[in-house]
Amino acid sequence: MQRGGFPLNPTLYTVAYPECDARDLQTIDTWRAANDPTGHALVRPHFTLVFACNAVDEATYLAHVAAVAARTAPIPFHCRYAMLGADAHSPRAHAYLVPDEGYAALSLLHDALYTGALAEALRLDLPYTPHITVGTFESAPMARAWCAERNQAGVSVPGQVAALWVGQVVDGRFEHRVQFDLMG
């Protein structure tokens, strides 16, 4: 496809699926089904590392992600905090599971992905917080209350990230293109 004589690049995402105990994944999936049915239907629980990028052609994007994955070791993490994710431009808000262990390593992986071919695609107006979205709410107070309940009860989701998945949204579903194992 072309637009104005220039090739139209696909809008690609890079995500990492957490490898966790089956009970923890079931709990996350239950929360997402109840509190984020649209996201639940779109893609399974994940950390998003590259957001909606069409800055480069697919071959360049894939080669860059492959190179980063090849030099990155699997990342252990442990989510112990449910965090409010509010947007100043919308009344809606999100609930995130945020890792304390693995936070820096996931952030550094995000930063490495936004170098080289993808450097110009990084949104500097949106600071990155590694997270798994577990809810979308009509208001920030609703999301905050949900997070407070989870934190009061205690959140503990250990796991690891061992691969990057590149894909795109097609007909309301995240469609996988390629998986790159973390090999570093």
**How would you write the strand order of the largest sheet?**
4-9-6-7-8
End-to-end gap:
36 Å
CATH class: Alpha Beta
Helical fraction equals 25-40%
- Find the structural class using helix and strand composition: alpha+beta
Q: Tell me the strand percentage band.
A: 35-45%
How many domains, as an integer? 1
Largest β sheet strand count, sense and barrel closure: 5 strands, antiparallel
Number of distinct helices: 5
Order of helices and strands: EEEEHHEHEEHEHEEE
**CATH superfamily descriptor:** Cyclic phosphodiesterase
The CATH architecture would be Alpha-Beta Complex
Find the CATH topology.
Cyclic Phosphodiesterase, Chain: A
**SS elements, strand count:** 11
Q: Any idea what the radius of gyration is?
A: 17 Å
| Molecular shape | globular
Structure description:
- The chain is an alpha+beta fold.
- It has a single domain (11-181), classed as Cyclic phosphodiesterase (Cyclic Phosphodiesterase, Chain: A, Alpha-Beta Complex).
- The protein has helices at 22-35, 37-42, 58-70, 103-113, 140-153; strands at 2-3, 6-7, 12-16, 19-20, 47-53, 75-86, 93-101, 132-137, 157-161, 163-170, 173-181.
- It contains five helices and eleven strands.
- The chain is globular, with a radius of gyration of 17 Å.
- A hairpin with a 2-residue loop joins strand 1 and strand 2.
- The strands form three sheets. Strands 4-9-6-7-8 form a five-stranded antiparallel sheet, sandwiched between helices. A four-stranded antiparallel sheet has the order 5-3-10-11, covered by helices on one side.
